[in-house]
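Lay summary. Proteins are chains of building blocks that fold into shapes, and those shapes determine what they do. In this project we predict the shape from the chain. Here is one chain we studied, written as its sequence of building blocks.
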Amino acid sequence: MKKWWITLGVLILIVSGGLIGAGSYFYHVAIARGDKAFVTQSTTLSKRSPVYREKYWYAHVKKQTWHITSKDRLKLVAWYVPKSGSNKTVVLAHGFAGNKSLMGAWAGMYHELGYNVLVPDARAAGASQGQAVGYGWLERQDDLQWAKTVVQRTKTTQIVMSGISMGAAGMTMASGDPQLPQIKAYVVDSPFTSAKAIISYQAGQLYHLPAFPLVDVTSGITKLRAGYTFGEADAVAQIRKNHLPIMIISGTKDTFVPTKMGQTLYRNAHQPKELWLVKGAAHTTAITHGYQTYKQHVRAFLAQYVN
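And here is the predicted shape, written in a compact code that computers can read:
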């Protein structure tokens, strides 16, 4: 009997050590700052792109570089492009493994719609400090702080909070926190429902691994190293607390963040709300799938709440 217990104890130690090792590996892959090989984002400026004009403008326009210090004392950086005579500003959040330089299509669109444009580098991305990606949960506070900075530094009286992918999830999470009176609406493109849901989904899609117990172990490591769990980063719980207008955009061919996640967020949102499912669009590609249609949908939604 004693040998049996010793054997069982050794097996438990081996399995536990293996799980911790695997969790540490996936923390490095998914959370720690660094290149994410499973995410590819083109920086090529092609004249055949439906958003060439917007990207070209963004690449060459004169930008102001802004800085803030986050609540946890990280130095964060953003680009600001004013629109002459405008009192409305969009705060625009990029996606997972992205940075502010990749947001030309959306920045150009909002500028064309009459908005000053503020595009931050999220924590642990671009020129901003930080060693851990927050899957929207940590970034939501940064986004709201950027909005506050816009009010302090400009004559803005109306703010739209917008983002794509992880930036969209972060903005959705931000919508459930106390809001500045200047924030009038949210527009989120391809948001996920929670960090736990999207990481569990990607574990299956990319690595053909079951979510349990690996995702839970990685979540525990994330709590120790980054200060949050995957369960905390819950856009569904946050959208239930939001009472500002929110537009959710999802592509019907999105295999990176399943379309059903946008639908789940919509079902849990209060009015006023709008869900636009873009037929045939993949992840965050609705804007290139039909630029003028995308622009008109966003314009029509915001016209109801932003003058």
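What the prediction tells us: The longest helix spans residues 2-30.
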